[in-house]
Write a structure and sequence with these properties.
- The chain contains 1 helix and no strands.
- By secondary structure, the chain is mostly helical.
Length: about 50
């Protein structure tokens, strides 16, 4: 009986690396990145309304 692997090893490793990269990206965005200001458009256009 021949015991060959019947799955795509390169595709499996590509999937695992992509999954790990996405998880690291979401952890960075969720817990490390400072975010945006509470109201980023607050001072936009105030000069013309004076």
């Amino acid at each position: 009986m021949n015991k060959n692997d019947l799955y795509n090893k390169a595709g499996y490793w590509t999937f695992l690396i992509t999954l790990a990269a996405n998880l690291l990206f979401f952890v960075y965005i969720s817990f490390v990145h400072p975010g945006i200001p509470s109201n980023p458009g607050e001072n936009y256009g105030n000069e013309s309304s004076k």
